[in-house]
Every structure is written in C-alpha cells, then in structure tokens.
Amino acid sequence: MGEKGYIFKSALTQDVAYNTLLIERRKILHERIGVAIEALYHASIDDHIATLAYHYGRSNNLDAGMQYLTHSGRQKLLGARKNAEPDSQGSFVASGSPGVTTASEINGEALDSVQSIWRYPVKSMAGEKLQSVFVSDRGLAGDRVYAFVNEESNRTAVVRKWAESLLNYHPHFVSEPDPSAQVPHLHINMPTGETLATDDLDIEERISAVFERKLKLMSTAPPGLLIEVPVGTLGGAMSEVTEFPLAGGSPAGAFFDYGCVHLIASTTINHLQKIYPQGRFDERRFRPNLVIQSGAEPFIENSWVGRAIAIGSELVLRITIPCPRCISVTLAQDDLPRDPGILRAIAEQNMCDLGDFGTLPCAGVYAEVVKAGHIQCGDTLRFVD
Asked: Of the candidates 42, 20, 258, which has an alpha carbon nearest to the alpha carbon of residue 139?
C-alpha cells in the first residue's frame, strides 16, 4: 500500500478552504510543506523542483523560492534543448558534440568573439565601456560594487520604480578595481553637470535630496535586500510579485538583479533593429557585460543554456538562464528616448518559458563563472563541454 493522500473533489471547495486561511498562516504552511518535501525526497530532489518552487514562492522564505524558481525554469529550457536539432549553419541550437567546439562556425571560421565589454560601477547608473577586464566568481572587476539603498525598507534604488534618472548618472573609478583589494572610490558625473565623489561626506545627503528618500551608499548588500518591480514584470505564479531578493544567482553581498555576468549576441540586437526600425536598439538599453559578435541566427543565446563557454585563454562561464526583459529597456537615458516599442518587439520575437517565473520576453543570457580569468575585446568563444 502507498502513502495516504487527500484530495478535494471540487476545485471550488479547495479554493474556499484555502482562502479562509490568514495570509500569514498560508505562508507558514507553504514553507512547512517545502521543508517536508526536501526531507522526504532529498535523494531525488530534482524531480520535485517545480513543486518546491510553488510552495517556497508562496512562503516567507523568498530566497529558497527564488532558487527553486530559477532551477525550475532552467530544467524546462534544458529539456527543450535536448529535443531540438542543430540548425543548418551548425550552430548549437540544442545538443552538440562534446569537446572543444566554436560557438558558431560557418565553413570552419569562428564567428563568435567579444565585441564589447561593459561594467556598471553603481547599480542602476550608466555603464562604462572597457577594452579588457578581469572576471572572478563575483563578475567583472568593479561591476555593481556600489548601490544606493533605502535602509528603512531594505530596498535598493532601481530604475523600474522611482530611480529612473539614475541611468543618466555616469560613475568612473579613480583607479582600476582589484578583486582582491578594497573597492576604489568613484567620481560620479550628474545630469546637472556637477560631480560627486564616493568619499564626499555629503554624497548620501545630496543623492537623498534628489530622490526624496533617505539613501545610503553601500559596497556590500545587506542580508535580505529586496528589489522592487512593477506588477506583471514576472509571470505565471509570480505575476503579482512586486519585490524579491536581490542577486538570486550571484554570490552573497552582490548587487546584481540575478546573475553576475550577462551576455547578448550582436545578431539578436541587429535582428530586433531590423524588425522595429523606428526604435534604437543601442547596447546601452540591454545593460550587458559582454556583447558577442556572432553570425548565428537571432536569439542563439537561448541554445547556450547549460553549456560551458571559454572566452579567450582563461575565462570559463556556464550559461544559466535567459535574461528576462522588463520596462528597463524602454527607458530614456542620455540621447536614447523612452520607447515602449523596444520591449514589445522583444516580446513578439522571443518568449521563453521560465517555469514558475512565467513565459517572459527574453534577450541575452545570464552566466556563472566556472574559472576566473582576464578577457579582452576580440577574444573568441568556444564550447568546452
């Protein structure tokens, strides 16, 4: 005989019973269920990822919910990739032969290389373009090492809500960051033409005055730091979520939205420009770390999920999940106008099923660092798994 189980004969009865529970009580019960599943099925946990994502996503343990949600979405993508066939150009839309293979080849010539490198010293502020950089398990040296945080709410300043104008603030390091040393100070060029420095005694007071809330400049994210998003940014079971823990796919203390390295292929950007010519699909809208010069089909990055990619002679990344897009890509910054058509074009071309995150418009991918190393513009990419 198997274990006892209980079901509702009527979905309506189930809904009524569920909704009579206080919200806080529901959260406690969802977390208990998650803990029980982990204990009972620890040897086959991958078979229960979606269920764990469901329960933890409705509990107070948002960190666990985010981890399982991400894993659930990745499982779906990998399953789809296993069933796909390589395209006519030999690009790895899905499975490929193991060993060292160029990321995309036509007539034996490697087409994929690093076109540009970007880092963003202060979260939500403008980026700076680089020729070379060292990449560690915390991402590019100097990338998102500072953020302005509202300590009262434990939320970071983000452009999706009340800090859109941060995109027009341009930070620059006074010296090149060293991952093994203390973070160097910054000079920040404001839209007014004034310059702030991170060692100015009144920098927090001046920034707080601009955004009309008390903000603190931090170089390490405090535990439980949240990021705010508009309703509907996520989909599926998360469609009503308006906040979630920062850096779900990055080391503790980081200020990334999710992963610590973000890549996008030039062919994806160029394709979007072609199908929506009145828009301006500038690299800056996507806030990537690496733009990859590629001759493959648009959204080739989807097929990289789960693969290990070497860049140059040192760095190795593992692609984790497609990068969901939201209103951030539509916002005005410097000479780029506000344009809702940017997000609409992405949604029309590339919707990805990310499990309980929902089916979302995506462009580019996130990656984790397998092996640290230096990279520079022009470095070639190759698969190493």
From this structure: 258
Nearest to 304 by CA among 292, 288, 287: 292
Where do we find the tokens 């100097």? 142
d(CA 45, CA 278) in angstroms, rounded, equals 48
- Taking residue 189's Cβ as centre, other Cβ atoms within 10 Å add up to 16
- Amino acid in position 37: I
The answer for 67, left when phi > 0, alpha when psi is -120 to 50, beta otherwise, is alpha
Cα–Cα distance between 138 and 318 in angstroms, integer?
14
Q: Over the stretch 178-203, which tens digit does the pLDDT of each residue have?
A: 888 888 999 999 999 999 999 999 99
**DSSP line for 297-351:** -TTGGGGGTT-EEEETTTEEEEEEEEEE--GGGGS-BTTBPP-THHHHHHHHH-E
8 Å CB contact between 220 and 183? no
Averaged pLDDT for residues 37-51? 78
Q: What is the pTM of this model?
A: 0.74
Task: For residues 48 and 224, give the distance between their C-alpha atoms in angstroms, rounded to a whole number.
Answer: 25
Helix (H, G, I), strand (E, B) or coil at 128: strand
Span 237-252, mean pLDDT? 68
Least confident of 31-40, 134-143, 168-177: 31-40
| Residues above pLDDT 70, as percent of the chain | 76
CA distance 227 to 326: 14
End-to-end CA distance of the chain: 44
3 state DSSP class of 349: helix
What are 308-328's pLDDT values in tens digits?
999 999 999 999 889 999 889
Q: Which of 233, 218, 223, 330 is nearest to 284 (CA)?
A: 330
Nearest by Cα to 272 from 364, 187, 338: 364
